[in-house]
Amino acid sequence: MLRAGGFRNNRTMRFAHSLAGIDASQWNSLAGGLAASNPFISHEFLSALLETGCAAPASGWTPSFALIERDGELAAAMPLFFKSHSYGEYVFDWSWADAYARHGLAYYPKTLGAVPFTPVAGPRLLARDDADRRALLDAARELARDTSSLHVLFAGERDMQVMREHGMLERRSVQFHWRNEGYADFEQFLARMPHARRKNIKQERRRVREAGVTFRRLRGREIESAHWEFFHRCYRSTYAAHGSTPYLNLPFFRRIGESLADNLVLFVAERAARPIAAALCFEDGHCLYGRHWGALEHVPLLHFECCYYQPIEYAIERRLASFEGGAQGEHKIFRGLLPVETHSAHWIADPRFARAIGEHLERESAGIERYVNELAEHAPFKKE
Predict the structure, then answer these.
(1) How many domains does the chain have?
(2) pTM (two decimals)
(3) Same domain for 115 and 157
(4) Within a domain: residue 333?
(5) Are residues 145 and 66 in the same domain?
(6) What digits encode the pLDDT tens for the residues 266-276?
(7) How confident is residue 384, by pLDDT bands cut at 50, 70 and 90?
(8) For site-directed labelling of 113, which of 148, 171, 268, 340 has its Cα 20 to 30 A away?
């Protein structure tokens, strides 16, 4: 589906099935630039997902990006997809789809404004002013009228404010993030914890070392083709162990290894001079994002070391402000990652379902608030 419409002031709106004809520098400028914003909304990352087939019609992701152009230049943009399922989103609406089915109605296709397979908050209405943000949202909602609904996931606060003003339903969820309080090293980070918690983490790390595991960090173009092949084997193996199908393929990892090299760090676990596991993180100069991990053999506690302790050490050394450990996982709070709310916005075409879902989200939101408060009581740090 490709539509176009006119605006005043030399602006035009259109929808595009790919980013192939869209200038990368113009797109990234709207997104805040790779140095100032997380890399996942970048032209490079989204293009890699599309052009390697990870997010493609065959896998249930049909792109229809909203674009506003002014005098031939990109003025605003929004990543949009038609979805035939709810996999790879991390904001779970399976119960909504079930409710539609019980009433003999189709929930799919739905319209999604998100970065596929990436539960990282960031801009979704890429624009320099709220007028263009509102225009993008109007266009997205108009596009969504051919489907059951519009869902904008893990949106930043500025975008959320615009969507609240448009009357979209707000949904809150919880992640766990580590904050750098100016630590000189990992030991100073541990020093903020009570003795029992420090002892537990030190024991976990010691058991991994005593199992003969060491680590290498590979940054940027130090990650070569053989490393990507190894990492992809680990990634596939871990999905298979959970009876799941991986979302991302080897061409995708190789592609970002070229186009986003400056944003990548790979933590490789080795035993007896042989790699056995790896965790892939992204960084943007401010934050480290834990994204994917996998192992070829089981070592007790290796996941915690590879996915949390090694990245936290790295973030301290690089003086990064934060480390986002990925979606879900209450176990993270005992390792120094604290609860943080994330937000999404939803427009439901059917008024009856809109009311029912709105009431559900009000109850859910109150529960989320209680949940965050309870988690805060279990923070692993000494009381000030």
Answers:
(1) 2
(2) 0.94
(3) yes
(4) no
(5) yes
(6) 999 999 999 99
(7) low
(8) 340
The answer to whether position 383 is within a domain reads no
Are residues 133 and 204 both part of a single domain? no
Rounded to 5°, the CA angle 45-47-49 comes to 75
**pLDDT per residue as tens digits for the range 208-256:** 999 999 999 999 999 999 999 999 999 999 999 989 999 999 999 999 9
| Domain membership flag for residue 382 | no
End-to-end distance of the chain based on CA atoms, in angstroms? 57
Query: Do 67 and 95 touch, CB atoms closer than 8 A?
Result: no
Nearest to 42 by CA among 50, 54, 51, 31: 31
285: left (phi over 0), alpha (psi -120 to 50) or beta: left
CB 154 within 8 A of CB 114: yes
pLDDT of 10 over the 80 cut: no
User: What is the H or E stretch that residue 14 is in?
Assistant: strand 11-16
User: Element (H or E) spanning 140, and its range?
Assistant: helix 130-144
pLDDT tens-digit series, residues 357-370: 999 999 999 999 99
Domain that holds residue 287: 181-320
CB 98: neighbour CB atoms within 10 A? 11
Buried b (16+ CB within 10 A) or exposed e, 221-231: eebeeebbebb
* Amino acid in the structure at residue 249: N
Residues 189 and 246 in one domain: yes
CA 213/CA 271 separation, integer angstroms: 5
Q: 185 in helix, strand or coil?
A: coil
Q: Do 221 and 93 fall within a single domain?
A: no
Instruction: Scan for tokens 């003003």, then name that residue.
Output: 165
Whether 52 maps to a domain, the answer reads yes
Q: How far is CA 182 from the centre of its chain?
A: 25
